[in-house]
Design brief:
The chain is α/β, with parallel strands linked by helices. The chain is built from seven helices and 17 strands. It has three domains: 2-200, Rossmann fold; 210-271, Roll (SH3 type barrels); 277-357, Translation factors (Elongation Factor Tu (Ef-tu), domain 3).
Length: 358
């Protein structure tokens, strides 16, 4: 097969290309530049990443293509990202970025260039059962990225390969070192998909005006002021600036809720405060990877990446909304984030959290 590998300049995509070459495929690489709003920023590493991708391609003896998807990223991912924060929710751009950029814009471009399939360095697997492509969890459970891939459809999975699905991260670095790839010890990227690490509050304020308001207890007592509800997420501890309040002791404060109508941030004391926990949630924007499962459904779910899988029962309500009841109350369930469902190693799909309910 002719396979186009998304070379990001990191170790995972480098070894993904290496493994495919060792399997006898004709491999080419493609470097995507998807953000150019503030290229001069200290946070932008696109030039360094491109240099690393080019060095890897040279070492492996493969052709490297480059393409700019910045307009697609803005229209399909970043605009949604801003709209969600504007509405007081906390979006997960990596999920949408995978569907719209890595497995749509990139896939379409690669197929136009004559590739049979694309490959990335994601830690996940693909298997075909009963004429349906299924997404499965990676062998390295600590690195499993199916949470970020649950929006992929049958067309996308039918033209995708994940060469790292059956190996551990430590093995990936060892393979890169033995192959002489200069990315073997490069640290993993973090931060916003394709935008990178940065001071989040400063970054977001460039696009959304701050609307300061009060921080209050659930009983309405004023604790301080916030800089804008969009800067805070449920369960957050750092950055509240309300320590040392007379009579409150030294127990830390956490964000428990956002009152959008009053522009008030609700805070509680203690990591295990009851208001930080919820037994159930509602979710919409449902996506099943293969055939929709029969509901009600007993399965496992996670509300954030790397959260241990949680037993739950999923039922369908009107208006295409899922009701998810957990066996144990969940901490810091956050509207806008994804909830992803599993049965054993199989990733069934997921939905967007609408609200936590008691």
């Amino acid at each position: 097969m002719t396979i186009m590998v998304g070379l990001s300049g990191g170790v995972d995509s480098s070894v993904a290309a290496l493994r495919l070459i060792e399997q006898g495929h004709h491999v080419e690489g493609l470097f995507m530049k998807n953000w150019e709003e503030d290229d001069s920023s200290e946070y932008c590493s696109a030039a360094e990443d491109l240099a690393d991708a080019a060095a890897v391609a040279q070492t492996l003896g493969i052709k490297l293509h480059t393409v700019n998807f910045s307009s697609e990223y803005w229209d399909r991912v970043f605009s949604y990202f801003l709209d969600e924060y504007r509405a007081g929710r906390t979006p997960n751009p990596d999920v949408l970025c995978n569907r719209e950029i890595k497995f749509k814009a990139f896939l379409d471009y690669a197929l136009q260039l004559g590739a049979d399939a694309i490959a990335t360095g994601h830690y996940a697997g693909i298997e075909k059962h009963d004429d349906f492509y299924q997404l499965i969890r990676a062998k390295d459970d600590n690195k499993d990225q199916t949470y970020f891939l649950y929006l992929l459809n049958q067309h996308q999975l039918s033209h995708a390969l994940f060469p790292l699905w059956d190996i551990d991260k430590a093995d990936v670095r060892t393979m890169a070192l033995k192959a002489g790839l200069q990315t073997h010890n490069k640290k993993d990227s973090t931060g916003i998909c394709f935008i990178g690490e940065r001071r989040f509050r400063d970054f977001l304020s460039q696009y959304l005006p701050a609307q300061p308001g009060n921080i209050e207890t659930p009983q309405g007592e004023k604790l301080g002021t916030h800089q804008g509800l969009m800067y805070y997420t449920i369960g957050q501890r750092q950055g509240l600036g309300i320590g040392g309040i007379k009579g409150s002791g030294e127990t830390p404060w956490f964000v428990a809720a956002k009152d959008l109508q009053r522009n008030v941030l609700i805070a509680v004391q203690g990591k295990k405060h009851p208001l930080l926990f919820t037994p159930a949630l509602l979710a919409n924007q449902i996506h099943w990877i293969a055939q929709p499962p029969q509901l009600p459904l007993r399965c496992l779910a996670r509300c954030r990446h790397r959260q241990p899988l949680q037993p739950c029962c999923v039922t369908l309500q009107e208006h295409d909304t899922l009701h998810v009841a957990f066996d144990e109350p969940q901490r810091a369930v956050t509207p806008g984030q994804a909830i992803v469902f599993y049965q054993q190693q199989l990733c069934l799909g997921g939905a967007t959290i609408k609200e936590a309910i008691s």
